[in-house]
Amino acid sequence: MNSGKEIKQIVKERYGTIAQQSKIQNQSSCCGSGCSNVEFSVMSENYAKLPGYLPEADLSLGCGLPTEYARIKSGDTVVDLGSGAGNDCFVARSIVGEKGRVIGIDMTEAMIEKARSNAAKSGYTNVEFRLGDIEKLPIEDNMADVVVSNCVMNLVPDKRKAFAETFRVIKSGGHFSISDIVLQGELPDDLRKEATLYAGCISGAVQKEEYLNIIKEAGFTKIIVQKEKEIEIPYEIFAKFLSAGQIEDFKKNHIGIFSITVYAAKP
Fold first, then answer.
1. How many CB atoms lie within 10 A of CB 45?
2. What is residue 188's DSSP assignment?
3. If DSSP codes are grouped into helix, strand and coil, which group holds residue 117?
4. Residue pLDDT, tens place only, 32-74
5. Predicted TM-score (pTM) of this structure
6. Residue 133: DSSP 8-state
7. Which of 145, 161, 142, 127 is closest to 72 using CA atoms?
8. Which domains does the chain have, with CATH numbers?
């Protein structure tokens, strides 16, 4: 496996490229990573029904709808980890209203530029985007009422540090709602070693039980899986990395890739 520094560079380069692409181009790839020519997204969900949805900010990179489950209230301060072009931030902004505040954090310069442009076009003055690393958030202690994130934590090499940082920036009594990719059973080595698939949200995922334990170890309570669905990976994607025999073994062993949306509170 690549080092944490190498993984971050891979993800940064990949998502820097994605920032320059259209939603349609991103939907023709594995979680937007460009790792397949299959012409549909295998993980993203439809945001169009949510208030505040801004099509220009939706690059089809997520695996859930965390803002829909985040229990955001008017006047809240919301932080979005891995905010991309601002999709979840703008949905959150429609809920917090003029008296609330939304801060998006992303480590990719091109994404920050795109998000700021989208906010400026919409005339939003209470939405800001900061360049930063989730393992060392550019946010002061106890600032956020709510944290959201969509298919990003699985890309972070040190998930314990990321959730510790999330705990730090949430106010006492605050909470998060995070959508992410987790596993049931072990991925074949050929998949886990493939760097482009790592940036496509799968190979960086950990076991579901481990993921929930990391959240608990960070100090969070009231941990609830709000939504869970199995991701059906098209044969064409698997065939790029695995032999027919390996794919058959994968299915026989009941190995699964799941999207979960998790709620947890800071005491």
1. 17
2. P
3. helix
4. 444 443 333 556 788 999 999 999 998 878 889 999 999 999 9
5. 0.84
6. B
7. 145
8. 4-265 (3.40.50.150)
Query: How far is Cα 40 from Cα 38, in angstroms, rounded to an integer?
Result: 6
Enclosing H/E stretch for 230: strand 221-230
Give the pairing type, strands 144-150 and 170-184. Answer: parallel
CA distances, 119 to each of 55, 111, 127 (Å): 12, 12, 7
Residue among 59, 44, 55, 111 at smallest CA distance from 82: 111
Q: How many CB atoms lie within 10 A of CB 242?
A: 18
Q: Cα 227 from chain centroid?
A: 15
Bridge partners of residue 102, in order along the sequence: 78, 127
pLDDT in tens, 169-221: 999 999 999 999 898 887 777 666 654 554 455 667 889 999 999 999 999 99
Q: Strand 127-131 to strand 170-184: parallel, antiparallel, or no bridges (unpaired)?
A: unpaired
The number of angstroms, rounded, from the C-alpha of 168 to the middle of its chain's C-alpha atoms is 19
Phi and psi at residue 133, in whole multiples of 5°? Answer: -105, 135
Residues 178/162, Cβ–Cβ less than 8 Å: no
Lookup result for tokens 């026989």:
252
